[in-house]
Amino acid sequence: MNRSLRLAVPALTLALAATTAGTIAHAQPETTVHIGQSTGSRTSVPRVARDWIAGWNSPNPDRLARLFTTDATYTDNAVGVVWHGRTGVADWKRRTDQFIPGVQLRLVNAFRDGDDVAIQAVYSGQITGAPRPFSVPATAILKLRHSLIATDTDYYNLAAVLAQSGLPADWTPPGS
């Protein structure tokens, strides 16, 4: 991982999840892009970030899965699960859609530096059976290989998801 991403990842994680400590340095201006910020004649959000958000917002799990390498690793740190390959990614998307019908991610910010991509989003929905919806900041750190996602590591505050949803802190989905 190059120096600018290694320094920017703690900044994003701290701002979004308030869980990262350490020294924060600013990223190079050409690698940080805010939605709506013009760089030249167009907004420069990494295509993979837009496609990743669209894949999560699609009812078709394969739309997300096809963005990944066949041997990809997808880690959701909040719930402590790791999925492997496109089939695993599609299965994770299906499970998420079952427990959180209409789950949505809204892109807030993203940047790419070589094969490293950082995505800042708002993750929202309503867990099946929960009395209230949730909306929390989330961060995804992607590592690309040949323009496909080889690793995806997601960070968000599960305690905030459960609290906003009106569920107890030790709640687990039925059948898990």
TrEMBL record:
Residues 1-27 form the signal peptide. Keywords: Signal. InterPro entries: NTF2-like_dom_sf, SnoaL-like. The keyword Signal applies. Residues 49-150 form the SnoaL-like domain. This is SnoaL-like domain-containing protein.
